[in-house]
Amino acid sequence: MEYFLSNLEESLKLEIPLLSLVGSFILIDSISALDSEEGTASGDKFKKWLTKYLPGYLRMNISANDYYTFRCTLLHQLSGSRENTEITTLLFFPRNSRIQGHMNRINKAFNFDIPTFC
Q1: Which of 9, 15, 45, 74 is an S-S bond match for 32, by CB 3.0 to 4.6 Å?
Q2: Can you give the three-state secondary structure of 42-68, one letter per residue?
Q3: Which residues span the domain enclosing 38?
Protein backbone atom coordinates (compact mmCIF):
# COMPACT_ATOMS: atom_id res chain seq x y z
CA MET A 1 0.00 0.00 0.00
CA GLU A 2 2.87 2.36 0.82
CA TYR A 3 4.36 1.79 -2.64
CA PHE A 4 1.00 2.54 -4.24
CA LEU A 5 0.63 5.77 -2.23
CA SER A 6 4.11 6.92 -3.18
CA ASN A 7 3.29 6.29 -6.84
CA LEU A 8 0.08 8.28 -6.49
CA GLU A 9 1.97 11.17 -4.90
CA GLU A 10 4.58 11.03 -7.67
CA SER A 11 1.90 11.19 -10.38
CA LEU A 12 0.56 14.34 -8.72
CA LYS A 13 4.02 15.93 -8.59
CA LEU A 14 4.58 15.11 -12.26
CA GLU A 15 1.13 16.54 -13.07
CA ILE A 16 -0.26 13.38 -14.64
CA PRO A 17 -3.91 14.00 -13.75
CA LEU A 18 -5.47 10.97 -15.38
CA LEU A 19 -3.24 8.52 -13.52
CA SER A 20 -3.72 10.47 -10.30
CA LEU A 21 -7.49 10.31 -10.56
CA VAL A 22 -7.54 6.64 -11.56
CA GLY A 23 -5.18 5.90 -8.67
CA SER A 24 -7.44 7.72 -6.22
CA PHE A 25 -10.50 5.75 -7.30
CA ILE A 26 -8.54 2.49 -7.09
CA LEU A 27 -7.39 3.49 -3.61
CA ILE A 28 -10.97 4.11 -2.44
CA ASP A 29 -11.96 0.69 -3.81
CA SER A 30 -9.05 -1.01 -2.07
CA ILE A 31 -9.56 0.69 1.27
CA SER A 32 -13.32 0.08 1.22
CA ALA A 33 -12.65 -3.64 0.70
CA LEU A 34 -10.44 -3.83 3.81
CA ASP A 35 -13.44 -3.58 6.14
CA SER A 36 -15.37 -6.39 4.48
CA GLU A 37 -15.32 -9.99 5.60
CA GLU A 38 -14.62 -11.27 2.10
CA GLY A 39 -12.05 -8.54 1.37
CA THR A 40 -13.45 -7.60 -2.01
CA ALA A 41 -14.49 -4.26 -3.44
CA SER A 42 -17.99 -3.43 -4.59
CA GLY A 43 -20.02 -0.44 -5.65
CA ASP A 44 -21.88 -0.37 -2.33
CA LYS A 45 -18.64 -0.46 -0.33
CA PHE A 46 -17.15 2.34 -2.45
CA LYS A 47 -20.22 4.52 -1.89
CA LYS A 48 -20.40 3.81 1.85
CA TRP A 49 -16.70 4.60 2.31
CA LEU A 50 -16.99 7.85 0.35
CA THR A 51 -20.07 8.88 2.34
CA LYS A 52 -18.38 8.11 5.67
CA TYR A 53 -14.89 9.50 5.05
CA LEU A 54 -15.32 12.17 2.35
CA PRO A 55 -18.72 13.69 3.12
CA GLY A 56 -17.52 17.14 2.04
CA TYR A 57 -17.45 15.87 -1.53
CA LEU A 58 -21.15 15.04 -1.39
CA ARG A 59 -22.78 18.39 -1.95
CA MET A 60 -24.36 20.39 -4.75
CA ASN A 61 -26.42 17.32 -5.63
CA ILE A 62 -23.30 15.21 -6.26
CA SER A 63 -23.91 11.81 -4.74
CA ALA A 64 -21.72 8.86 -3.87
CA ASN A 65 -23.45 7.14 -6.76
CA ASP A 66 -22.24 9.91 -9.11
CA TYR A 67 -18.66 9.34 -7.95
CA TYR A 68 -19.05 5.62 -8.45
CA THR A 69 -20.33 6.31 -11.97
CA PHE A 70 -17.25 8.53 -12.57
CA ARG A 71 -15.05 5.73 -11.28
CA CYS A 72 -16.66 3.08 -13.48
CA THR A 73 -16.68 5.07 -16.70
CA LEU A 74 -13.11 6.25 -16.14
CA LEU A 75 -11.65 2.85 -15.21
CA HIS A 76 -13.60 0.79 -17.72
CA GLN A 77 -14.08 3.17 -20.64
CA LEU A 78 -11.50 5.95 -20.14
CA SER A 79 -14.37 8.40 -20.02
CA GLY A 80 -15.67 10.59 -17.24
CA SER A 81 -19.20 10.86 -18.45
CA ARG A 82 -22.34 8.86 -18.86
CA GLU A 83 -25.62 9.95 -20.38
CA ASN A 84 -28.90 9.76 -18.51
CA THR A 85 -27.34 10.49 -15.13
CA GLU A 86 -27.52 13.58 -12.93
CA ILE A 87 -23.92 14.48 -13.84
CA THR A 88 -22.90 13.69 -17.42
CA THR A 89 -19.51 15.39 -17.66
CA LEU A 90 -16.42 15.84 -15.49
CA LEU A 91 -14.36 18.99 -16.00
CA PHE A 92 -10.70 19.38 -15.09
CA PHE A 93 -8.53 22.40 -15.68
CA PRO A 94 -4.75 22.17 -16.12
CA ARG A 95 -2.75 23.61 -13.22
CA ASN A 96 -1.43 26.43 -15.39
CA SER A 97 -4.86 27.39 -16.71
CA ARG A 98 -6.27 30.83 -15.96
CA ILE A 99 -9.51 29.05 -15.07
CA GLN A 100 -9.40 27.14 -11.79
CA GLY A 101 -12.17 25.53 -9.85
CA HIS A 102 -13.02 22.94 -7.28
CA MET A 103 -16.43 21.49 -6.46
CA ASN A 104 -18.32 23.51 -9.07
CA ARG A 105 -21.41 22.38 -10.87
CA ILE A 106 -22.56 23.87 -14.15
CA ASN A 107 -25.78 22.27 -15.43
CA LYS A 108 -24.89 18.57 -15.79
CA ALA A 109 -21.13 19.11 -15.60
CA PHE A 110 -19.06 18.90 -12.44
CA ASN A 111 -15.54 20.21 -11.83
CA PHE A 112 -13.04 19.40 -9.14
CA ASP A 113 -9.36 20.01 -8.75
CA ILE A 114 -7.58 16.67 -9.07
CA PRO A 115 -4.67 17.35 -6.67
CA THR A 116 -7.10 18.59 -4.01
CA PHE A 117 -9.30 15.50 -4.44
CA CYS A 118 -6.36 13.11 -4.48
Answers
A1: 45
A2: CHHHHHHHHHHHCHHHCCCCCCHHHHH
A3: 2-117
